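Section: protein folds

Sequence with per-residue C-alpha cells
===
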Amino acid sequence: MKILQAEVGRGFQFGPDDKILYSDGAVLEKDEKEFVDLASKFESSITEKDYHPGPDDLVVDLVHPSLYHLVYNRTKILNNGKLETAQFEEAIKAVKKGVADYGVSQKFQWLPALMKLDDEKQFTFSSYINNLHPLKNAELYGSIAKIFNLAVPAINMSLARYQSDEYVRIPTAYFGEYYTEGYDKYEEKLEDLIDEGADEEEFEAWEKGKRAYYREFKPKYDKEPETKPFELRDLENLKVIVKLANIELTPEKPEYKGGSWHVEGTINEDIVATVLYYYDMDNIEESRLSFKYAFEDPHYDQGDECYCEDFYGIKNEDNMTRMIGNVVAQKGRITVFTNSFQHHVDAFKLKDATKPGYRKILCFFLVDPYNTEVKATDVVPFQNEKWVNDKVLMEKFFPGVDAKELATMTEKEAKEYRDELMAERKVIIEDNEDYENAYTRLFFLCEH
C-alpha cells in the first residue's frame, strides 16, 4: 500500500477500497477560490432555480446531463460532416460483452464533452459542456478543466487498480474442500437422525456441530501489490460528462433524507470513473458518501446454510452486495472512484436549524476512453432552441450547419424528456425483481 500511496500524487489517500481515493489538498487555495467565484457568478446568473425532479425540492440542478440529452430517432448528429438522425445500434451494447440488457437504454444517452490534451499535457475542453453556455462561461470552462486535471493522478490510480488483478489474501474453498477428513464420519450421524425421526432441535444441534470440522484457510500475502500502470495523458482526448448541483436546506426543510443506491449512467454512456469535488458547504452536519460492491455466488456444499453464513456472512435470499465503507464529504475535498461500486449520499441535516445551509458539488463522469460508440458534443449540435438561434454561438462551434435542419427542443420538451429518462433509469436502479442486475439479484441457496 505504501508503494501505491507514493504513486498517487499530491494529497490523495485511499478510502475504503483501493479504487476509491480522496484528497483535501489536491486543489490549491487559489484554484479553489477561482472556481468558487466563477461558479457563484454562474449560479447568480440563473434567474429561476431548476429543482431536480423529486418530492422535496432540495436538489438544485445548475448543469445536469439529463437536460437536452441525446434522444435516439430525434437528435441530429454529424457523421463525416453531414447531419443525420442518431440511431440506437446493437454496437452500443456490444462494446461491453456479457452485459445484460438491464443496463442499456434504447432511447437516451447523456452527452459528454470532448477534452483534448494540449502541449502542456493538460486536458482542455474542445467542445461544449451540455447545458453550460460556452461563450458566456468561458472562464468557468477553464476553471472546471483545471479541477479535472488536478484529479488525474487519482483517476489513473483507481483505473490502474481496476484493471489489475484483485488481491485475494484469504483463499476460499473449492468444491469438496470445505471440511476436514473427520467430517465424513460426523455426516453419518445425520442419516441416523433421519432414521430415528429426530426433532428440529436435534437437527439444529447437528448443524452447529459441523463447525468443529471447518477447514482452516489462513491468510496468504507474500508479495507487494502488482498494479498495471494506467495513464490518462497517454490518450489524446477524453469524453467527460460534467454536472454542477447543490443540495439546499432551509428551516422549513432541514433534512436531506439521502440518495438512492446507484451506479452512474447506462452502457450508453459507459462511465468508468467518477470525480466529485465538494467546493462549498455551509451550516450542515457531517455528510458521507457510502459504497457497496456486488459479488458472485460463493462456493459451498448444496444446502449448507450454516457454512455460507459462517464463512461468507450471507443467508438465503440475502442481497448479493456488501457495504465497504464511506468517505466523508467535506469542503475542498475531491473524491475519485471507479464506476464499479454502487454508492449513495447518506442523509444529513442542518447544523443550526434556524438558518439555511447547503452543499455544492462539481461532478465529472469519465467515459471509457476506448469506447467509440458514445457520441460527444463535438458531433452533436446544440438542441436548446435558444442556443441554436444564437448565430455567433453556432458559427463558433458548428460553422456550416444549417440551424433549420436541427431537431431543437423547447425547455418544456427538454424537461419532459428528462422525466422520461429519469423514469427509465429509476426502473434500472430499483427493480429488485431483476436477477440479472449485479446489484439487485439475491443469493439463493442451492438445495438440489
